[in-house]
Amino acid sequence: DGWKAIWSMIFELRDLFLLSGVPRPNLLQESDPDLLTGDARDEFSRRIVFGDEVIDTTRTPRGLMSFMFGSNSNGSLDSKSSVQDRTDGLGEQLIWDDLAPSDDEEEEYGTGEATDYLPFSPRRRNATVGTSLAHQLAMESLRDNDEMGVTGLERIESGPTGPISHRAQVRHRLSALVDFYGLITESRYLSDDGLSDELNSLVEIIHDSAKQKEGVSSLSPASEAFAEVLICELALRNRDRFSTLWDNILGAHYNSRLTFRPSRREGEDEAGTIVLTSGVEKCVTGLLRLCVWSTGRSSISDRVLPLLNILHPPLGALVWSPLELNLDKHMAEGLWRICRDIDGQSQIDGKGWGAILGLIEWCATRGGMGQHGMLDEDDPSLQSFRSLHLILHAAEIKDLVPYECVRSIRCLVEAGERANNPKLSIAGLDLLQALHTRMESLVINNADSDKLLQCWLPTLDAIGEPAEKSKNPSVRQQAISLLTDSILDRHGSSIPVASLYEVLNDICIPIAGDRIADLLRRIPSPSDMDDTLIELELCISLLFKPFLHHLKALVSIKQEFIAVWISMLGIMTQFLSEGGTQADVAIDDDEHVSSAKLFQTTKELGSEHLRNAVMVLAAMGVLGGGDEAEADSGDISDVTWKAIGSISKSLVDEWKTCIS
Questions:
Q1: What is the pTM of this model?
Q2: Is pLDDT at 522 greater than 90 in this prediction?
């Protein structure tokens, strides 16, 4: 009860703006840098005060990441003026570290500037204890500032020498009499029981305030956020006892605070979700700050980091709505601060990695919301890219990162598509390539094929998705090229033949066939012709190169082999049968002639790939030259020559002659 009384007085002084913002450090300042940039903090504060009424569209690019991926960051804004312009006074109780305008007078002591604040009347009948104390301290400050001459003959300057406003006088007197910051710093000397009592009193005040009905709470939203900041500061100040504090107080507090659902009201079918307040924001911020600090402490990181799962789906989606709270930039910056501690991450266990990768995946999903292909410098998807790029390339931990990070990279590529930012999608593909290269160690160490498959197949699926569905030709080309090279790598020689057929049937042939059919349906403009021809060439390579590279293994299962070969013949028949031959090229104008010649050249390349495959199959005895005596290869030979004959009769005779 004693600590509760002390904190209650502190919160009332905060609500009256009687806690000084000078000197530093003080209670109204967090020991760590803010998770938000100045512009983002200004925007968030306006969301707290005004809701979604104020939207600023001024955008100016800046920063290295914005140079790479584009930026539409806000220009600098005056945070305090934009928040405090509200005339109904509600903003004063919503921002936890908001300072009254008269704080500026302490910086300009003795300037004599007037203020709009009226003195607190000591005769107010319903004055609180805090108000009465404020008036008493102001009177003492005035008496202390009175100047009296020694002999009475001295000349006394008539100009003011002290704070002008009543509030500034009180604040000045309080800062001289009370060391408020000592409540944090001196807690190091408290016993374990005393420190627990100090923390528990804050937790109980927050808990009691949350349980009270709307409009009856004795704790303002700003003071509720202030209490969350104090809890985090006390925990960080007593790091030597953090393990005990987490197990007994902090873990339960953050878990219950962020999973608490308001009770169901009359007329509602279900209980409500958490409403965005300053207190909720500082609770999330406090958890992230503690996770950042605990990353390098193996004794506690396995207990602290898993709690990150309640900040995002699937666990978070069951108890609150992250989409409504929209604290993505907070979580993204917290994620980056966790991931940049390379030495600390080398001590993280499986549960900790799972929580970090889950947060990366969520931030990647929530990013890419910029306009016109531009992303903010603090966009969650960019923060996810920075984090993934660092942990996948850092020599100390790159072998410790679980292969499940492929899901996070996949979301990053999708964020690039959503933001119409091909650079971000291609950067995600580069991360998939780095992850694929890392699997080389599994092949060298002769790892179990099932383990290799669990890592390799999801990576190929992640590469294949943008190869088939991306709207940007440069992204598709990069993905198709990377997919072809990945399948040609020696990873495929270490997996069962049945899995190779799965890759061909589910990834290579469908993607190549769909893209070729889509490109043939379109009539590309002259400016898009080069991209179209390049993509056609890449699709043909995706169709034939993996097939020929693993041919010796594939022919061991005849029925599967025939099915795959027939599918490839069908795609090539459609491609080579489209349009006319070289003699049919129109000569209406030079531009169309050039495009037709380029398209004809691509068809000739496809024909060359098909011819090469036929020759290799014939050399291996799989494909015959059409003689009826070759019974073993009769079925596949008959299908092959019929398909080639449907393209051109002359090709059949020419290729049979080469075989013979």
A1: 0.80
A2: no
